[in-house]
Amino acid sequence: MIERPAKSVSRRRVLKGAAAAASVGPFFHAPKAFSQEAIGNWPAGVSGDSVFVGVTSPLTGAYSADGADHLRGYQLAIEHLNGGGGLVGHISTLKGNGVLGKKIDYKYADTQLKPNVAVQEQTTYITSNKAIMITGCVSSATAIALEALAQRMHVLNMVGASGADETTGADCQRYGFRSQPGAYMAAKALTPTLGKLYGKNKKMIFLVPDYAYGHSVEHATGTLTQQELDWKNLGSQVCPLGTTDYSSFLLNVANSGADIFINVCFGGDAVASCKQAKQFGVLDKMKMVVPNISAFQAQQTGADIMGGVPGTMDFWWTLAEKNQAAKLFVDAFEKKFDAKPMWCAHIAYAQMIVWADAVERAKSFDPVAVIKALEEGHKLAMPLGEVWYRATDHQQVRDVPVVMGKKQSEMKNKDDYFEIIEMAPGPGLMPPDAGTCKLPGYT
Amino acid sequence: MSWPLLIAQVFNGLTLGALLVIVAMGLTIIYGALGVVNFAHGAFYVLGAYAGYIAYSETNSFVLAMAAGAVFVLLSGVVIERGLIRFYYDRPKEDQILVTFGAGIVLVEAIRAIFGGLAQHLPTPSWGEGAVHLGITYYPTYRIEVLGIVAVALLLFYVVLYRTRLGLIVRAGIEDPLIVDMLGINVRRTFLTVFGVGAAAAGLAGVVNAPIVTVTPDMGADVLVQSFVVIVIGGVGSFWGAVAGGLICGEILALTSMVAPSYSQVMLFAAMALVLVLRPQGLFGVTGRQ
């Protein structure tokens, strides 16, 4: 209450008035203390009818086929979020009229498989387009760089395809959420199958692409097979990312005396190295395992090489035969693109849906509120089954498909390259909470 | 490490190096004769691989595929030289680098737009299938035959360079283009042929290498960088320099992989740095070129 001073003002009255004015001052600040402070691009980025999402994907480079698939997943998800279809409707919070009534606007950029390019592009989306969320990559090195950017700029990052443990381990960020199984999870899912197929006490050798993902998968797979199957690690042939001729590495592999050849290469590198492994007689001498099979690997390498090869994937389209959500996704994708979705498309699509649901539940685009909504561990019925985020490291808890390549004679149609041997239950695969992830603050 | 493996890797280095020799031969002729730093050379390699892939799909003949790859890239090289490169002969080197780099990007992205990013499959020819036991290790038959193909191609190059008038002009133009001009020889018209032939060498290498690696738009990126290393080590504009440089680089890649696989590419650059320090013109380089 402000006292209006009387026309003739005594000194005492002025002092009283001043004291009264000072005492109500804090109450003017009170509303602000209870509201959210502006953070990142919130609320500036949500002031209009639409919100902006920045999308990046490697459209050139060794992973360009997966990158194109990844982008299609985003395009389909945004179309559904804005206009209905697919999982929108199946997930009760999503109505097909945008997110919180606002249309999703987006642009995409080619990362060229380079983290610095991805960071540059997303920085532009954050600063010029006021992106409320950034997403998309097919590379752990890029994922880690974008997570750091997201944390710095306080803009949420729904991580694209990234398989290294560090993404939700040593390099975890409060503003990053990763859905793909990390190297540990994939190895934990795969190891029992390797035991059943090949038995214990085998000798293994690795072919490893020289970056975060490669070393992470090598470490996880090597450690778990040693611990659970008493396999002996004869070492690694480390090759630069994007190598085309693997002859010198494969000669070493062929002469190593190993029983099992574990090929960690991905994308175009996986295709080249698998083809050349056959040429050098490696596949006649030993069994090949591919811990994380790239989406188009069988299509490009051929069923004669990939037939009988075990591995894991984030998603395979035959899940549609058993899971309603998978069927909705696969059918919608096939209708729009006249092709089956591969797992990079699945990651993109699923991350957008999970994010949109979290925003709807938080009833706000405020990144702090959305992060907390995701950290609640709310379970969603998605193409893989039930999925939710673990609060301690922002790794999604989800089942992991263990697959095996089909021989040409076993394929029922032109896309039928893999059989899902097992859906390894997610909760049993999570890395132990050993404290490598220390999530930074919300602000 | 064992003796059989060492010998096997030395042999592998020869085959790795053989492809580099052919690619670098084209690059060194273009750089030596025209003075043009051709950063589109990797794109010519890719163009050749795709031309060969299409020809093989239509004819099922690998020999025709090789011819198609070389001829198509020769013609493409001629078109690019007439339409673009010839305006840059008198421009600074940085302009040449930029324009050829840009042309390379355009070519590769055009290929990606037409064929997509998925790897195409050019199968090993029937006469190259299987593996041969060399006494020490099994080795893919086709890679041994590549040595033969490269030897034939090099012989052709040698004959053209050292036994024809065209070759005489090219070699003279490498040594001293000013004198050649003053003698009334139209060196510029020769440039057209040289650029086409140099590009064709990369195209042929693309087809020949296609059954070994995968045919993708990005297959030329590594090759471009490695071929520059080869000509720096061997010496710009030198036939024997390209041969020696290519084989040395192949051996470096193969032998380093035995002890420190992740350093195999790094050692290439270490070798290049060493040559630049000790003998900047390269092992067989022509010192007169400015």
Task: Give keywords.
heterodimer, A: 443 residues, Rossmann fold, 2 domains, five-stranded parallel beta sheet, 15 strands, disordered N terminus, B: 290 residues, mainly alpha, two-stranded antiparallel sheet, 11 helices, globular
Protein model, in words:
- The complex is a heterodimer of chains A (443) and B (290).
- Chain A is 41% helix and 17% strand.
- With 443 residues, chain A is of the alpha/beta class.
- In chain A, the strands form three sheets. Chain A has a seven-stranded mixed beta sheet with strand order 7-6-8-9-10-14-15, sandwiched between helices.
- In chain A, helix 2 (64-83) packs parallel to helix 13 (343-362).
- The model of chain A is unreliable at 1-6 and 25-35 (pLDDT under 50).
- Chain B has a domain at 23-219.
- Chain B has a two-stranded antiparallel ribbon.
- Chain B is globular.
- Classes of the chains: A alpha/beta (443), B mainly alpha (290).
- The interface between A and B is large, with 37 and 43 residues.
Summary of the model, kept short:
Chain A has 443 residues and is an alpha/beta fold. Chain A has helices at 11-34, 64-83, 115-127, 140-153, 183-198, 212-229, 247-254, 267-279, 282-285, 297-301, 303-306, 324-337, 343-362, 367-375; strands at 50-57, 103-110, 133-135, 156-158, 176-177, 203-209, 232-239, 260-263, 287-292, 310-312, 380-382, 385-389, 396-397, 400-405, 418-424. Helices cover 72% and strands 2% of the residues of chain B.
